[in-house]
């Protein structure tokens, strides 16, 4: 296992769930750094692994050399999965066990004694009543596809999935992953890409309103 280490310029640490999320966020930051938001150069993104590892991961990072002296902001990011509120509660529990003063709500920033804290729960989309949806990074990626014909293509993918269910009795327990990766393999540019690689290759629109909400939180954490 590689040794965990803070970069010299890090003032904001982002701990996210999984390698896909890590590299999606890295290329998102790279996009905005190139567009002039130089404060994002001070954000370090790391994968905390699985949900059961979050509490321990936070504890390890907060005790790494340089954290207390240099890091002024912490952000935790994970999927909502099937229960947005339960996922928020899980994050708050992990932060509380590590003696952090926790924001009451996701997608908000809390500052105490000059230290800022936030947690983001993907996908970040809302229902018709303004409540955050359950879901995953893949749902966020589907929402932010950089393709003017994405809706028509996704309709075709859904027709294929429904036909496969009917004709072959196939099941798609991770439908969000199936839909996204079916979309990616439709395009030679993305056919072999994981999410992070697809982000680097331009598959997603980093100006999409849902993605811009991530940017809003990162901006508040680094200003």
Give your account of this protein's structure.
By secondary structure, this protein is α/β, with parallel strands linked by helices. 45% of the residues lie in helices and 13% in strands. It contains nine helices and five strands. It has helices spanning 19-34, 54-62, 67-70, 84-97, 137-143, 150-168, 175-185, 195-201, 209-222, and strands at residues 12-16, 43-47, 73-79, 109-112, 115-122. It is globular.
Short key terms for the protein model shown above:
223 residues; alpha/beta; five-stranded mixed sheet
What is the compact description of this entry?
With 223 residues, the protein is an alpha/beta fold.
Tell me the span between the first and last alpha carbons. Answer: 33 Å
Q: Are there runs of 5+ residues with pLDDT below 50, and where?
A: none
The count of DSSP E runs of length 2 or more, i.e. the number of strands, is: 5
Q: Oligomerization state of this entry?
A: single chain
- Return the average pLDDT rounded to an integer: 96
